[in-house]
Amino acid sequence: MSKRAISTPSRTKEILEQYGLRAKKNFGQNFLVDPVIVERCAKESHCEGAVIEIGPGIGGLTEQLAKYSKHVTAYEIDENLIPVLEDVLSECDNVEILLQDFMTCDLSAKVSELKEEYGTVSVCANLPYYITTPVLFRIFECPDIAYITVMVQKEVGDRFAAKPSDPEYSALSAEGQYLFDVKKLFTVPGRSFNPSPAVDSVIIQFTRKDSSISQKELTEFFDLVRACFKQRRKTIYNNLREYLQDAEKAKDVLEKAGIDPGRRAQQLGVDELRKIYEELI
Ligand code: SAM
Asked: Class of the 9-208 domain?
């Protein structure tokens, strides 16, 4: 077996040629061809227990995760990549490759099993751009996943990391920051991928703040946040009134939460949105 890392540009090229593969757009395939970035991403992902990867591709990141983690579970949707992965990762005996759509897998069951066996469970992935947000929300809903380290398009990373009053600040930012401390680790230029996308990417890391938030609270809080941001130009009072279908209640809730009804959701931090939620329950 070659000693070069899979994500070395020449090795990736060889693997693609050897197996007659071409990156499939419909699966969001952009292979990372920058061994320094790939190793750094794995190293910083807190993957020492078990780690879950979504979309191993031809195994560039998987190979590095296998070095730093006790166990890697990788979900890949493209059946043509399975024999390739089994071949190129044949020396990594701590890697489990599953041919499965991550969006329909039983994630909670898998996470419980991994936590029981390896103590901690984290996620590290170069996410397929066409389903970045739904994938992240699936992971958000698993309280036992403490760290999520993912490569996403720069624009998506900016939205998750945005602070109140930033132009990118949205319901997505507030929801993510309710559950996690969100940090941008570093930017990855388009040339670090094969094929190169037109836009830059960024590696962001989510560190869970509190794993005791129930599914019910999560759903209710997210519903409220989405309603508050529904019409971004409207005041918090107007959006809340519409959501509650009750003008008096909206006024009362904002007063008790100490929020000026003339402000917009765009200007409210997560703690302030949380106060509104607490007045409603
Ligand atoms: N990890 C590899 C790398 O960094 O070079 C490949 C990353 S590529 C951006 C995204 C990968 O996700 C592809 O291998 C693609 O086939 C896979 N994928 C796309 N949709 C998926 C899904 N719903 N479930 C599991 N894997 C998926």
From this structure: alpha beta
Maximum Cα interatomic distance, the chain, rounded to a whole number of Å: 71
Q: How far apart are CA 3 and CA 173, in angstroms?
A: 41
| Tokens of residue 202, six digits | 């960024």
Backbone angles phi, psi at 261, to 5 degrees: -65, -15
Q: What is the dihedral of CA 170, 171, 172, 173, to 10 degrees?
A: 60
State the CB neighbour count (10 A cutoff) for residue 216.
9
Q: Whose CA is closest to 38, among 208, 206, 201?
A: 201
Please, which residues have CB within 8 angstroms of residue 73's CB and are 6 or more apart in sequence? 50, 51, 52, 53, 96, 98, 110, 114
**Cα distance between residue 177 and residue 136, in whole Å:** 13
Classify domain 215-280 at the CATH superfamily level.
rRNA adenine dimethylase, C-terminal domain (1.10.8.100)
pLDDT digit string, tens, across residues 182-213: 999 999 999 999 999 989 999 999 999 987 88
**Measured from the CB, is residue 126 less than 6 Å from ligand 1?**
yes
The best mutation among 11, 37, 54 to test binding of ligand 1, ranked by most ligand atoms within 8 Å of the C-beta, falls on 54
Q: What is the pLDDT of residues 21-57, one digit of tens each?
A: 999 999 999 999 999 999 999 999 999 999 999 999 9
**The pTM of the whole model exceeds 0.90:** yes
CA-derived radius of gyration, the chain: 21
Cβ 5 under 6 angstroms from ligand 1: no
Q: Hey, what amino acid is at 230?
A: K
- The residue extents of the domains of the chain are 9-208, 215-280
